[in-house]
Amino acid sequence: MSLALHQDQATDLEALSTAFATRAAEHDRTARFPHVNFAALQAAGLIGLTVPRAQGGQGEGLTAAIEAIEAVSRGCASTGLVFAMNLTHQAALARDTAFPEALRTRVGADAVRHGALINALRVEPEMGSPSRGGLPQTTARRQADGSWRLSGRKIYSTGAPGLGWMLVWARDDADEPRVGPVLVPARASGITVEESWDHLGMRATASHDVVFEDVRLEDAHLAALRPPAAWRSPDAVGLAWNAAGLGAIYTGIARAAAAWIATFLRERVPSGLGKPLATLPRMQEKAGGIEALLNGNVRLLRGLAAEVDAGTPPPASESGLLKTTMIENAAQAVEIAVSLAGNHALSRRNPLERHWRDVQCGRAHVPTVDFAHQAAGRDWLEGAA
């Protein structure tokens, strides 16, 4: 049952989730961005769910966001990932006053009126993820007329063909460079999307390379750049949103897998048994294990979202642990479902093999298990000392 969404929104989401599920296999096969799904989300007024009311959005918090993300992800994992990133970054723009109000209002209004999606582009071929340190090679250079020109390459650019705005992690060309997100209109001249994405899972996210060649920008678009040291203090709210959004995506995937295996066990009647597999104690025990993992995720998501919406987010290292815990729970739940279905789980005729592929991608999102455990362990041991 919905905790934060209006009843009509919750009903719309369930209908959308069902519709997305009917197209998910084709989008997975072709690895094409699901524009039709985002048109449907826009028609339902959901692209602007976390855009401030002053900009025409609904101004919802994390509790409503995770409900929407989980429902969308049950239908189509790739749509859920891009949708989650959009809601997260719209909420972040509403909190962060680094960019001028007029520019933030433009981004929010674009989402509400035109369904313009936003996501962060951070990873580079040489540097990898910024979470591991290092300066980006993507650089904004000051021009004689006072404008800037941005050049560089980003990889793993989730949702690239469908974005209206890009938060590009970049540096300026000063002797002591500033770094941070540069707000770039995705249709600006000099931007090329190179179709490089061919992954095991989350195939329809179309997370291609994006190349920037002398993209012209004004000062306002670089207003969030800071000295590298200014980024060392973790953003507890932002990291909690990231953890909850990712947890909701992969819990949604696992819920779809659980629904499929439940139907399979109820309907599968081996001739030597003469009754459904669902009646066997072993199958019931395994199904209970799936429910234990996913019910745990639901409790973690609701508690985390409630704390964030109340203005009391957990420490950054705790959000990292919650993210990795929820991802592992979801992956284990799907793996149990696969073990129960046997060869049927590996057939492309059934969605379970797609759910298994998609859920593997959760482990690649930052923070990864090693990074999250190290950060939490350091905080704990230093605190204990």
UniProtKB/TrEMBL annotation:
One of its GO terms (molecular function) is oxidoreductase activity. Keywords: Flavoprotein, Oxidoreductase. Pfam families: Acyl-CoA_dh_2 (PF08028), Acyl-CoA_dh_M (PF02770), Acyl-CoA_dh_N (PF02771). Residues 124-215 form the Acyl-CoA oxidase/dehydrogenase middle domain. Residues 245-366 form the Acyl-CoA dehydrogenase C-terminal domain. The keyword Kinase does not apply. Its EC number is 1.-.-.-. Residues 18-86 form the Acyl-CoA dehydrogenase/oxidase N-terminal domain. Signal peptide: none annotated. It comes from the Bacteria. It is an enzyme of class 1 (oxidoreductase). InterPro entries: Acyl-CoA_DH_C, Acyl-CoA_Oxase/DH_mid-dom, Acyl-CoA_Oxase/DH_mid-dom_sf, AcylCo_DH-like_C, AcylCoA_DH/ox_N, AcylCoA_DH/ox_N_sf, AcylCoA_DH/oxidase_NM_dom_sf, Mito_Isobutyryl-CoADH. PANTHER family: ISOBUTYRYL-COA DEHYDROGENASE (PTHR43831), ISOBUTYRYL-COA DEHYDROGENASE, MITOCHONDRIAL (PTHR43831:SF1). This is Acyl-CoA dehydrogenase family protein. It comes from Teichococcus globiformis. The lineage of its organism: Bacteria, Pseudomonadati, Pseudomonadota, Alphaproteobacteria, Acetobacterales.
